[in-house]
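Troubleshooting log. The previous structure file for this entry was overwritten by mistake, so regenerating from the original sequence record. Sequence copied from the archived sheet and checked twice against the printout by T.R.
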Amino acid sequence: MPTKTRLNVNIDSALKEETSKMLEKLGMDFTTAITVYFNQIVRKRKIPFEISDVRYYSVEEVAGSQWRDGLEKVVDEWE
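Regenerated output below.
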């Protein structure tokens, strides 16, 4: 059986709470989630997702908060 070690991290409390809720839905705890993450780093020999400084904009930021208004009137030409 592998030797276990303790890992202490400082993280934003709101992020921790949001993450806790999501992990609960997935049936996971923090230890399992972090173990899965670390295993992926070791297997892939990299961070298992892209890290970028590219900012992605939401539809609301690009088209405005009223972008849905009138969508029900749009005719689908494929029908």
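The chain has a mean pLDDT of 89. Archived copy saved in two places this time.
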